[in-house]
């Protein structure tokens, strides 16, 4: 298919047409009389925009609400209560810790005596 396209492009006539920024090229074989043998190639053409749109942060900064009235300008930021302290990431279980330590020591002593 690609070789057929290249072969027809080598012996073709280019006709360009621009529709709203999209350039349409019609490749016609020199011996072709019908449109069934013609090939449409569509490619985007870069146009200079008269009114480019702001993107991302620039748009948010431009369209944010402005403090134009005196009651807005003189308003202080909201004061909130401080947040409670965050819970600890790790919790150490202190209850029964001494008993578990004694059990470990007895188990280690029993293994050492068995050897």
From TrEMBL:
Lineage: superkingdom: Eukaryota
GO biological process: translation
Origin species: Chara braunii
GO cellular component term of the entry, any: chloroplast
PANTHER family: 50S RIBOSOMAL PROTEIN 6, CHLOROPLASTIC, LARGE RIBOSOMAL SUBUNIT PROTEIN CL38
UniProt feature, compositional bias: Basic residues: 51-67
Listed name of the protein: Uncharacterized protein
Molecular-function GO term, any one: rRNA binding
Region of interest: Disordered: 49-85
């Amino acid at each position: 298919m690609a070789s057929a396209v290249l072969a027809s492009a080598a012996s073709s006539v280019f006709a360009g047409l621009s529709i709203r920024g999209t350039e349409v090229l019609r490749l016609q074989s020199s011996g072709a009389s019908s449109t069934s043998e013609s090939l449409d190639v569509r490619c985007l053409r870069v146009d200079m925009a008269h009114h480019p749109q702001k993107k991302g942060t620039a748009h948010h900064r431009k369209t944010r609400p402005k403090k134009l009235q005196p009651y807005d300008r003189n308003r202080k930021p909201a004061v909130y209560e401080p947040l409670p302290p965050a819970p600890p990431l790790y919790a150490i279980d202190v209850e029964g810790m001494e008993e578990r330590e004694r059990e470990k020591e007895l188990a280690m002593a029993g293994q050492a005596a068995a050897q």
